[in-house]
């Protein structure tokens, strides 16, 4: 059975709703990225990822860099493990309220331009294709994968902390949750 390690990005310089739509990491986030790289490198050789995949967003790429550098590999960018797509009609300022409403519900209740249940399946399929990798992604995408793996329909299945590592086993094209990552201590995302 193959494994994929999914790591939420480190603490960004600004949170959603800020002026920068693609922020990098702040000082804490950079330290978290170094710490999670050390954590992954400390795994037994047969459990350690050999490839690094990232969402296209800067906070994920910057979180992935220390591990990719240590492994001597290039970061593969996969938009399927990126942020949840926001409806085109929403402004940047309206996105936080839309997200808060989505977080309180189920995938099949989210209003938008696409079928968000299908989107969750796409995230899970992407992760299943990246067996043997460390995948750097986002709070919502990670919840999508956990939801698919566990059959839960709630948007928020758990609250992964910055740089927490969630592990899935892959059986064919199916994700099996092996280990949930560390959860955030606050309700602030």
Per DSSP, the total helix count is: 5
Strand ordering within the main sheet: 3-2-4-1-5-6
The fourth-level CATH homologous superfamily is: Phosphoglycerate mutase-like
Largest sheet: 6 strands, mixed
Average pLDDT confidence is 93
What is the SS-derived class? Answer: alpha/beta
- What's the CATH topology name? Rossmann fold
Assembly state (oligomeric):
single chain
Rg over CA atoms, rounded to whole Å, is 16 Å
Tally the beta strands: 6
Strand content: 15-25%
CATH architecture: 3-Layer(aba) Sandwich
Helix content: 25-40%
CATH class value: Alpha Beta
What is the molecular shape? globular
Distance between the termini: 33 Å
Name the poorly predicted regions: none
Helix-strand string = EHEHEHHEHEE
Q: How would you summarize the topology of this molecule?
A:
Blueprint: E1 2-8, H1 27-41, E2 51-54, H2 58-71, E3 75-77, H3 95-103, H4 116-129, E4 133-137, H5 139-150, E5 165-171, E6 174-179
Parallel strand pairs: 1-4, 2-3, 2-4
Antiparallel strand pairs: 1-5, 5-6
Helix pairs in contact: 1-2, 4-5
3D architecture notes:
The protein is an alpha/beta fold. It has a single domain, classed as Rossmann fold (3-Layer(aba) Sandwich). 34% of the residues lie in helices and 17% in strands. It has helices at residues 27-41, 58-71, 95-103, 116-129, 139-150, and strands spanning 2-8, 51-54, 75-77, 133-137, 165-171, 174-179. Strands 3-2-4-1-5-6 form a six-stranded mixed beta sheet, sandwiched between helices. Helix 2 links the parallel strand 2 and strand 3. Helix 1 packs parallel to helix 2 (58-71) and helix 4 crosses helix 5 (139-150).
């Amino acid at each position: 059975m193959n494994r994929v390690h999914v790591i939420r990005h480190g603490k960004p310089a600004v949170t959603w709703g800020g002026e920068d739509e693609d922020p990098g990491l702040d000082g804490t986030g950079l330290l978290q990225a170094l710490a999670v790289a050390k954590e992954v490198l400390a795994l037994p050789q047969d459990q350690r990822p050999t490839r690094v995949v990232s969402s296209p967003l800067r906070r994920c790429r910057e979180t992935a860099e220390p591990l990719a550098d240590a492994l001597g590999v290039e970061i593969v960018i996969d938009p399927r493990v990126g942020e949840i797509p926001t409806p085109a009609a929403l402004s940047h300022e309206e996105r936080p309220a839309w997200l808060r409403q989505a977080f309180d519900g189920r995938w099949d209740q989210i209003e938008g331009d696409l079928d968000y249940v299908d989107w969750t399946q796409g995230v899970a399929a992407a992760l299943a294709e990246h067996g043997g990798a460390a995948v750097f992604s986002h709070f919502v995408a990670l919840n999508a994968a956990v939801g698919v793996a566990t059959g839960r329909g709630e948007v928020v299945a758990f609250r992964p902390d910055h740089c927490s590592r969630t592990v899935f086993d892959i059986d064919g094209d199916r994700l099996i949750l092996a280990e949930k990552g560390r959860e955030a201590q606050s309700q602030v995302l």
